């Protein structure tokens, strides 16, 4: 069995899909999503996966995934203890994971998993959010209103870039 950093040993046997990607057999959708047109998932370690999923959904115009039916099904089948769930806006949700995705599948799925340790260093990978040049100041203000922090401004590589941080300190650039 594999080891998942939050959930411990994964109780599912691995299988490969038609493209050779592995996903645990019988795994819930948050662990093995219906990939459809989506080819990439970006995973964030965080303290509050649900707040992060909402923040990034607002930033990028994504939808926060509703896992309530799956959570209820897993609890009813005895495969998920109630202690691993929360009530979120009147719906059942996984306590330690959340996700945001583009309904068309053209953008990467963003997956957020609770970890016990906080962020301690600069990101080695970050997201770039592109907006029209005449909308950058307004978008920076909107993102600050959502909980982002402005770090610095760069224009040394041609275009204007605002370096920002999400509510948990993950760097991203507004191009």
Overview of the molecule:
- It is a single chain.
- With 175 residues, the chain is an alpha+beta fold.
- The protein has a domain at 119-175: 2,3-Dihydroxybiphenyl 1,2-Dioxygenase, domain 1.
- The chain has 3 helices and 14 strands.
- A 4-stranded mixed sheet has the order 5-10-9-6, with helices on one face. The chain has a 4-stranded mixed sheet with strand order 11-14-13-12, covered by helices on one side.
- It starts with a strand and ends with a strand.
Task: Give me the Rg, rounded.
Answer: 18 Å
Oligomer: single chain
Query: Low-confidence runs (pLDDT<50, min 5 residues)?
Result: 1-30
What do we call the CATH homologous superfamily of the domain at 119-175?
2,3-Dihydroxybiphenyl 1,2-Dioxygenase, domain 1
Share in helix: 10-25%
Main CATH class of the domain at 119-175: Alpha Beta
Distance between the termini: 42 Å
Report the count of strand segments: 14
pLDDT averaged over residues: 83
Q: Can you summarize the main beta sheet?
A: 4 strands, mixed
């Amino acid at each position: 069995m594999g080891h998942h950093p939050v959930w411990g040993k994964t109780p599912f046997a691995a299988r490969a899909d038609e493209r050779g990607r592995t996903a645990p057999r019988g795994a819930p959708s948050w662990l093995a999503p219906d990939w459809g047109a989506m080819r990439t998932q970006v995973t964030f370690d965080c303290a509050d996966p649900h707040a992060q999923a909402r923040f990034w959904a607002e930033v990028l115009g994504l939808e926060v995934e509703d896992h309530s039916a799956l959570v209820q099904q897993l609890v009813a089948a005895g495969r998920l203890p109630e202690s691993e769930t929360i009530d979120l806006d009147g719906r059942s949700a996984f306590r330690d994971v959340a996700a945001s995705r583009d309904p068309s599948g053209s953008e990467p799925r963003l997956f957020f998993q609770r970890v016990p340790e906080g962020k301690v260093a600069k990101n080695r990978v970050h997201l770039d959010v592109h907006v029209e040049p005449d909308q950058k100041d307004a978008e920076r203000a909107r993102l600050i209103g959502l909980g982002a922090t402005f770090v610095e401004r760069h224009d040394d590589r041609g275009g204007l870039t605002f370096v920002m941080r999400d509510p948990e300190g993950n760097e991203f650039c507004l191009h």
